[in-house]
Each structure stands twice: as structure tokens, then as C-alpha cells.
Design goal:
Helix 3 packs across helix 8, helix 8 crosses helix 9 and helix 8 crosses helix 12. Helices cover 57% and strands 4% of the residues. It has 13 helices and four strands. The strands form two sheets. It has a two-stranded antiparallel sheet with strand order 1-2. The protein has a two-stranded antiparallel sheet with strand order 3-4. It is mostly helical. The chain starts with a helix and ends in a 9-residue tail after the last helix.
């Protein structure tokens, strides 16, 4: 029976080595060999393998910060759609940069200390401004989803099936276009209906966004990334929206934004 088989499998092992791993005898039964194969092995870079080289992170961060709001939504939805094969090394990079004080957020100090070790040699002087712009909460820290959205960039969405998957998710009614009604399913908790309509118009004017327009937005963003790769001396200027978010975050910390809940 099963209990006898487990007992027999254990007999095939002599004991444990210094790390506590079972050590097999020279002559292994088939069931014991199968058991050793099933034991997980940690890759040299950690559970998720070696972290990627983030050589394009700053140009992609600048692109994200200068993109219209619709493109940011597209990249954030794409970040939630990425296959595990692509996501795993990016998760490793995030965990490595968040390693000293892991809180699920990447601050300016995290990036300054860790980006050079991941292939990004030149950390820009306006990094904190970029983080303020990219952070929807106005605090100046990147959560995991925003980090993934920035790191994969528009080129990854454009050149793989991730683009089609993302468009299909955003096209809630499956009519071949992304409308304000479609976007409201994702944004109704954070934006009013008028703001969602304005967001869509940022990308396509008065027209619903079809798949060709969707690809056009990503193509423009990809070109923007190439331009930022060449223009290394550019200093980011905060948008009015980013300034408003930052001021609200500061007021909230001081208790003046919600005086009845200042505690």
C-alpha cells in the first residue's frame, strides 16, 4: 500500500547531508529516483532565476512619464497580462532592488543603489521627479505593477502577442474598439465618467480606439523611447496632474487633506 511504498522510498536514502537534503544510496529504486527529480532546485539568481539587465529602464521610465494617460492605462493592463516566463526575471529584479527594506515599493534610494548593479550605469539627476510623475499616489515610489508596466515598455507590447491580449481585455464588449464604457470597467473606482471620456480623447480624439489606433499609440511610444535613449541630458518637468497628486499626498501626510482623520 501507499504507506509501505513511502517506507521503502525512505529506506533508499542513507540520511541527510550538511544542508539537510536527503542523500540517496548508490542503488536507487525507480520511485526514489522520481522523488529526487521532484525536489525543487534554486537557480543561481534565486527562485526566479537571474535578474535581467535593466539597461533601458530610464528611457522607458521617461516614456511612461511623458505618455498620455491612455497609454499608461494600456501598459498597466499589459503588466497584469504578462506571461510568467517574462514576469519571473522582472520579479527577481524588483525583489533585488527592494531587498534592503522590502516593503513592495521602490523608492529613489532603492533605484539609485541598485540600478547600476542591474546594467543601468547612468542614474539621472531628475530621478525623483520621474518617480513622482509615474506614481499614481504622488508619493514618488513604484509599486510592482507600475514597475512591470515601465520595464516591459511599449515595444514588448507591440512586438509580441501581449498587444492583442491587452486590447482584447480592454475591449470589454468585444466590438473591436475601446470605448469610454470599456474603460469605465477598469477605472470607475478612481475616475468619474467625464474624466474617463477625456482620457480616451487624449489618445484618439473623439473616435473610439480600434486595434490600428491601439498599435499606433504603442508605435509612437516606442519612437519616444528611442529618442529618450539618445537624449540623455533631458530633465523632466512635472505635469500639473503630478503636482496635484504630490500636493495631495503631502497634505494627507500632514493631516490637512482629511482633518477629521488626521490620526
Amino acid at each position: 500500500d501507499k504507506s509501505q511504498n513511502r517506507s521503502k522510498d525512505k529506506d533508499d536514502f542513507k540520511g541527510k547531508d550538511a544542508k539537510g537534503k536527503l542523500v540517496a544510496s548508490p542503488a536507487l529504486s525507480k520511485s526514489a529516483r522520481d522523488l529526487t527529480r521532484e525536489q525543487p532546485r534554486v537557480a543561481p539568481g534565486g527562485w526566479w532565476g537571474a535578474a535581467p539587465r535593466l539597461t533601458n529602464f530610464i528611457p522607458r521610465l521617461r516614456t511612461f512619464c511623458n505618455a498620455n494617460r491612455l497609454l499608461r492605462v494600456i501598459l498597466l493592463v499589459a503588466a497584469d497580462t504578462v506571461d510568467e516566463e517574462v514576469l519571473a526575471p522582472l520579479r527577481a529584479a524588483f525583489q533585488r532592488m527592494d531587498g534592503w527594506c522590502p516593503d513592495g515599493l521602490l523608492t529613489v534610494e532603492d533605484l539609485k543603489n541598485r540600478l547600476p548593479k542591474l546594467g543601468c550605469k547612468d542614474v539621472p539627476a531628475d530621478l525623483y521627479r520621474l518617480l513622482i510623475e509615474a506614481d499614481a499616489d504622488g508619493v514618488g515610489a513604484l509599486d510592482f505593477t507600475t514597475f512591470i508596466a515601465i520595464t516591459i515598455g511599449s515595444q514588448e507590447v507591440l512586438s509580441t502577442d501581449l498587444g492583442a491580449k491587452t486590447f482584447k481585455i480592454l475591449d470589454r464588449d468585444q466590438d473591436g474598439t475601446i470605448s469610454a464604457n470599456d474603460l469605465s470597467e477598469f477605472l470607475k473606482k478612481v475616475l468619474k465618467a467625464e474624466a474617463i471620456t477625456d482620457l480616451l480623447q487624449d489618445g484618439m480624439g473623439q473616435k473610439p480606439l480600434n486595434f490600428q489606433g491601439f498599435l499606433g499609440l504603442l508605435t509612437k511610444a516606442s519612437k519616444m523611447e528611442r529618442d529618450f535613449t539618445e537624449q540623455t541630458s533631458t530633465l523632466h518637468r512635472l505635469s500639473p496632474d503630478a503636482v496635484s497628486r504630490m500636493e495631495l499626498a503631502m497634505a494627507t501626510c500632514e493631516g490637512s487633506a482629511h482633518p477629521l482623520r488626521s490620526e
